[in-house]
Amino acid sequence: ILGDKQCVITKGSTFDNQQNLAPGFIEELIETFVGTRLGRQELDAEILTDVQGALWTHKMIDDLRMKGIDRSQLVRVVVAIDPAVKASMLADETGIVVAGRLANGHGVILEDLSVRGVSPMDWMQRAVNAYHKWQADAIIAEVNNGGDLIEELCKVVDRTIRYRAVHASRGKLVRAEPVAGLYERKMIHHLGIFKQLE
User: Which string of DSSP letters, residue by residue, matches the chain?
Assistant: First the structure.
């Protein structure tokens, strides 16, 4: 239905109608559903659909979501960058994700700062800010597109950053499969909701 050109979609969240609902009702909804897939659908009026053949499902991610974390639980934190070749709104997104490892070996996605249409200096500044905010151990960048320039850019923004370059030798799907396996084994968690990433 959503793909039909004749279909018109209008949305309104439960909170848009808050003045017409009992205060206790809203408080109960928030306590029960905020931060869940059902809450995003029913309270925030999001249309959530899983992509056929996707390696991850919304349910898989929701089941592993964390509401909070103490920084002392993290034994390692990295800021990962997958840079776009162009700074255009029509170009690919520059992926910037902060991820950590917990003492029990589980991983956690802490923040998604991915951005499209900004200059390399802007996205590198975002990554450096995240490095300091999360007291990260390193910035790791895929350098297939950009090579040494990415490391030089990192040094321009902040010479104190610990930086590591990685080269992607296989396609994205092949690289994603082991990560999807960790989700299936319930070893990766999301700290909060990352609408664009998810």
Answer: -TT-TT-------GGGGGGGS-HHHHHHHHHHHTTSHHHHHHTT-----PPTT-SS-HHHHHHTEES---GGGEEEEEEEEE--SS-STTSPPBEEEEEEEETTS-EEEEEE--BSS--HHHHHHHHHHHHHHTT-SEEEEE-TTTTHHHHHHHHHH-TT--EEEE---S-HHHHHHHHHHHHHTT-EEEES--TTT-
